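Check this.
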Amino acid sequence: MEENGSSRRSFNLVRLATFVVPLLLITTASHAQLTTNFYKNTCPNVESIVRSAVSLKFQQTFVTAPATLRLFFHDCFVRGCDASVLLSSPNSKAEKDHPDNLSLAGDGFDTVIKAKAALDRDPRCRNQVSCTDILALATRDVVVLAGGPSYPVELGRRDGRISTIASVQHRLPHPEFNLDQLNSMFASRGLTQTDMIALSGAHTLGFSHCSRFSKRIYNFSPQRRIDPALNPSYAFELRQMCPLGVDPRIAINMDPNTPRTFDNVYFKNLQQGKGLFTSDQILFTDGRSKSTVDLFASNPKAFEQAFINAMTKLGRVGVLTGKQGEIRLDCTRIN
């Protein structure tokens, strides 16, 4: 049975890879078909079932929160919100196999799989809810569990059938991006600078690895070893946690103060030169974005509302609806 499943999976992935499909990553008219009560007749308890499964997973490990949130972002930014990041490939050629996605924590994937299993145990909901919508709901739920705001999630997305390494190339923001690069990438997905800054606030949760920022603390430029935008004491702490010659995969909290709470402390950290990535700190050092950082640092409600608006818009990027996609029976493979 496993052999037959693997053969079918291989055939489907090869067959789909022969099509050349342009990456349309702007918000399209399809999002107009999304509604918060999309499953009211087919799976009326979808939200409570997903929430219970996510809560149980969260109780097992806090990593569930940042892992799921990051998974949603990476999915929507590549081919649009279609759960293509969840697909597996027998020859390691899917989105999840790209170097930019290898650091995605397994707990994010497991959260969706467990929520899908919980839905399938309900006869009314079995194979009625897309993996894409499950990921969107789970993302909202982990934000709430970590202390962040709740918000209505639009539903009705279908799952995509294509997932390739090539799709990821140059589609995700990098730690060394400046403001122009960030704005350009987010604008191509219908997101404003304010949206980008609010979504960057998700770095209040989770961790990164030394290799992603080591240049800032050891070899910033021929003239300077340490990035002058970094708080000196923070740079010293980072050096202690990430000594040269030690495994670069050591995990470092992205928010050194409240890494397990979804709050606005991330923006207060930027004001103090404690942004882990260049792409974080630039939000404060560039005058065009500084005022928004200051606003979010001083007004948590303003940040929360901006985050909700940005997440809603992000959840509309490149969505498939109706017959454009499918509802996967297994989130890791196409039907």
